[in-house]
Design brief:
The structure is a homodimer. Chain A is an alpha/beta fold and about 240 residues long. Chain A is built from seven helices and twelve strands. In chain A, strand 3 and strand 4 form a beta hairpin.
Chain lengths: ~240, ~240
């Protein structure tokens, strides 16, 4: 069944018209017609089994029928990723949504090749991934910030899992053992790594938890997926209920 | 420094001509000339700092200078992945190389959309990823086999980490706790999952270790990367020395 993120309120009998883009997608691409059912979520009202109530030339009315899931929100996990080439950054955003990150923050580092970043496009990728993966919210994409500033403002109550390829960091699971849930962040560097000055700065941040991801050199997207998976498995919602 | 996989013997003073494709890459694309250095490995003789000894019109002679790493081979880890769409399969092969799999076996399942598989191209992707990630061997790409046959022939001494999204499997780290190194395999299903019959068959295999990768639906590439990372962190060479 199609699963769609919408911005409108979801409640019983609260019919609403979707955007023209979504109307095009539902009626022309997916060829839904009146009476067909789909799942809707908006990040606030849970997930609703809904039906197509009316189809017009460039419009489509949807009607929520019954709530299938109460609203829930994942753990408070940020992924901070240095700006990398567009294709890899888009992969990282897709995977962050699947792996339950609540926010993706983009970091400008010394070795960043700052291509222009299209936050709107990244948000669309995050939205589509959220629809597919079954979550009830969409990760927020935060526009690029300077790494130095992020670290200078780092909140002491948010541990920072720093994937440190250059150093003597502890193996990831050992470094996470005995830690607790709560606000966390995972930090992935650019291809080519952080500069020595940046590494020292990050390690000096309150709450920095340097971890190693093994002996091989990893692409930024590989490192991001691996680190998020390890965090979820060790501390997050992959531990089971 | 450029790092290149070659098939020739690597030994002191053992000059050799690379293939025309590699000669083109080294001299035209990377613009190396006589005296420039690069790293070579062949999966047998370790890694060698080497130099360009001669450049001809369509040829290039290389000369190993000194061995920089003794030959080592990663752990005996197979990734078995259902045939998925080409772009995702290529991503999976690249990541399997970075994450230290020794072999990638391609499985034909009930829900496989069997596009034609280009094993030669996948091997080229694995080779390039091995060059970049710093390993001393290239993962073998095994041509597609029927899943049923693989499971029927399953060796009892190779535990099978079965990423089972449909069921009641234990959380991955709990399922791997207390297990030991040795031959292992990780099995990832097609998008859409294994059929109920296939799930029962896999679970009946000697050594099957069903694991859960959390509450969200994962794309096949995400699941493969996450599972390999968890295996390396729990049992493999990410545990540190």
């Amino acid at each position: 069944m199609i699963r769609l993120y919408v911005s409108q309120e979801l409640a019983e009998d609260a019919q609403f018209a979707v955007s023209p883009e979504q109307a095009h997608y539902l009626t022309n691409v997916m060829r839904l017609s009146v009476g067909d059912e789909l799942l809707l979520f908006n990040g606030r009202d849970g997930e609703w089994r809904s039906r197509v109530a009316q189809v017009g030339k460039r419009a489509c009315l949807l009607e929520p029928l019954i709530r299938t899931q109460a609203q829930a929100i994942g753990l408070d996990l940020d992924l901070i990723v240095a700006l990398v080439k567009r294709a890899r950054l888009e992969t990282i955003v897709e995977k962050a949504a699947e792996l339950g990150a609540r926010r993706v923050r983009l970091a400008i580092t010394e070795r960043t090749n700052a291509e222009r970043t299209n936050v709107e496009r990244l948000t669309a990728i995050a939205t589509e991934a959220a629809e597919q993966t079954g979550r009830l919210d969409v990760p927020e994409i935060v526009p690029p910030e300077k790494l130095d500033r992020m670290i200078a403002d780092w909140p002491a109550d948010r541990p920072l899992m720093f994937c440190d390829e250059a150093g003597d960091a502890a193996p990831a699971l050992a470094a996470l053992a005995g830690r607790t849930q709560g606000p966390w962040a995972v930090l992935i560097g650019p291809e080519g790594g952080f500069s020595p000055r940046e590494r020292a700065l990050i390690r000096s941040a309150a709450g920095a938890v340097p971890v190693s991801l093994g002996p091989r050199i990893l692409r930024a997207d590989t490192a991001a997926i691996a680190a998020l998976a390890l965090w979820q498995a060790a501390l997050g919602d992959w531990r089971g209920t």
